[in-house]
Write a structure and sequence with these properties.
Rossmann fold, alpha/beta, 9 helices, cytoplasm, GTPase Era
Length: 303
């Protein structure tokens, strides 16, 4: 028997750096919400990938940004917590945005917050800039921090991702696998289902309701015919928001429900009956139970 390797890999970076896209590519399935809006990943989502004899457990952290609200602070605490617990940390930087104020702040915090982790740099979205700009950016970042390795990737198109995965597998500590071979995520299916619906809402509503809604899977029933009946609650903060989510004659909620159901059916490989209900809960951002549902610590939101 060959010795196996296993460990945690944290993907960190600013909002929209492509962490969720890279996680989904590494795992080969959709386990993390991907939208064009920033700050959509709320919980540390673990995706599991195999590379030879190594099992890589990816922690997709919320984007690191300057927190203003309780939810923001809990998300940032979750991101740094994911980095501190990892064997390897991969900092993702967008090639076309370069060294922003946010990237500088992350670089300053890296030394303090990641004790003995191996830290690599992944410059993402390389198709958006010319080669000479990439080389200058690589030099600037490596002068600011002593990265073990630097990778040029496009998480969306897959460029450089195999090299990154092979390096990660080689650098993980020796040890037994933590998950069964066919498991791709350690999130409960109920949470994955809620995230899929929240993604569809985010994509559909764009500007109207940026972060003021959350989705919970209230009930999951396995039926005798092999299908699943899933009831979900969409919490919004005001009556006016409820109208936006429902849409004219219920068109928006119907479209969201259809898109979420189709993706769930593809993900689960069976029929799904999805029922969505919208509830107004003005203070859900201050409700400890909602944070637990999102995999966040309510106490981390304290100023």
């Amino acid at each position: 028997m060959t010795d196996t390797r296993c460990g945690f890999v944290a993907l960190i970076g600013e909002p929209n750096a492509g962490k969720s896209t890279l996680l989904n590519r590494m795992v080969g399935a959709k386990v993390s919400i991907v939208t064009h809006k920033v700050q959509t990943t709320r919980a540390r989502i673990r995706g599991v990938a195999l590379e030879g004899d190594a099992q890589l457990v990816f922690v997709d952290t919320p984007g690191l940004f300057r927190p203003r609200r309780r939810l923001d602070r809990a998300m940032v605490a979750a991101a740094w917590g994911g980095a501190a617990d990892a064997d390897i940390v991969v900092l993702m930087v967008e090639a076309h945005r370069g060294v922003t104020a946010g990237v500088k702040a992350i670089l300053e915090s890296l030394n303090e917050r990641t004790d003995n982790a191996k830290i690599a740099l992944a410059i993402n979205k390389i198709d958006k800039v010319p080669t000479e700009k990439l080389l200058a950016l690589t030099k600037e970042l490596n002068e600011a921090f002593d990265f073990m390795e630097t990778f040029m990737i496009s998480a969306e198109k897959g460029h450089g991702c195999e090299d990154l995965r092979a390096w990660l597998a080689k650098e993980l500590p020796e040890g037994p696998w933590l998950y069964p071979e066919d498991q791709i995520a350690d999130l409960p299916l109920r949470m994955i289902a809620a995230e899929m619906t929240r993604e569809k809402l985010t994509l559909r509503l764009h500007q109207e309701l940026p972060y003021q809604l959350t989705v919970e899977t209230e009930n999951w029933e396995e039926r005798k015919d092999g299908s699943a009946k899933i009831d979900q609650l969409i919490y919004v903060m005001r009556d006016g928001h409820k109208g936006i989510v429902l849409g004219n004659k219920g068109e928006t909620i119907k479209a969201v429900s259809k898109a979420a159901r189709e993706e769930l059916e593809e993900f689960l490989g069976r029929r799904v009956h999805l029922f969505l209900q919208v509830k107004v809960r003005p203070n859900w951002l201050e409700d400890a139970e909602r944070y637990s549902e999102m995999g966040l610590d309510f106490k981390d939101g304290n100023a």
